[in-house]
Amino acid sequence: MQIWLAGPLLGGEVQDARHLVELLAAFGLTALIGLERTVQGKSAGLRTQTIVGTSAALIMLVSKYGFGDVLHAGSIVLDPSRVAAQIVSGIGFLGAGLIITRRGAVHGLTTAAAVWESAAVGMAAGAGLLLLAIAVVVLHFISALAFNTVERQLAAKLRGTTRVHIIYENGRGVLREVLRISGQQNWQLTELDADAYDIDDGEVRVTMTLSGNKMGNARDVFAELDGVIAVLRADEETD
């Protein structure tokens, strides 16, 4: 199925249904990546991933087919990859803005990598390489879900790493005290995420990943602090 779009504003280009299918495929595949990031509570979620992936697919299609009406054999010849190549530098700039360093720990690397991945999936879909795009999305879920569990288990065994949920009363300076004690014990804070903040109930819940020696008693140490409601391992469920 081909549609002839004539007129000075539309450039007289021939566009077929395959182009639309490739664009929609990029949207759908990157939406799956975005859903996973949203479920994980990351900042670049469903909207960001789909916008990046769909835009990358559109740029790819424009780069391949957008200038057919001005090409003339022997006089005007264009490299079809010239526009698509700019996606790489553009996404690199966007990803750099997602990475932050706080207290010696780097945050946002996986989120930036996911945005880069969505752009690559969109480019593959726009180039008509749908099988490769689908394969990358499948591999994304393997790395984000299965590898995440394996990574945490290995880290806990090899580096003495623990991951805990701490629920405490707001306004009691509990988090400041937790960080102070971690410093005294030479426990390195590698990740700190605010899972929920409920002003009405006056409770704050954070997830902390700590590494160092003698991590077995970390839960007991934190549980003794004034204002702490509960300290749970990351694999334990709470109401």
From TrEMBL:
Q: Which UniProt keywords apply?
A: Cell membrane, Membrane, Transmembrane, Transmembrane helix
Q: How does it sit in the bilayer?
A: Multi-pass membrane protein
GO CC annotations?
Answer: plasma membrane
Compartments reported by the entry: Cell membrane
Entry's transmembrane regions: 20-39, 51-71, 83-101, 113-142
Pfam families recorded for this chain?
A: MgtC
Keyword match Cell wall biogenesis/degradation = no
Domain MgtC/SapB/SrpB/YhiD N-terminal, residue spans: 23-152
**InterPro entries given in the database record:** MgtC/SapB/SrpB/YhiD_fam (IPR003416), MgtC_SapB_SrpB_YhiD_N (IPR049177)
Family membership noted in the UniProt record = Belongs to the MgtC/SapB family.
Name the record gives this protein: Mg2+ transporter-C (MgtC) family protein
Q: Which organism is it from?
A: Mycobacterium terramassiliense
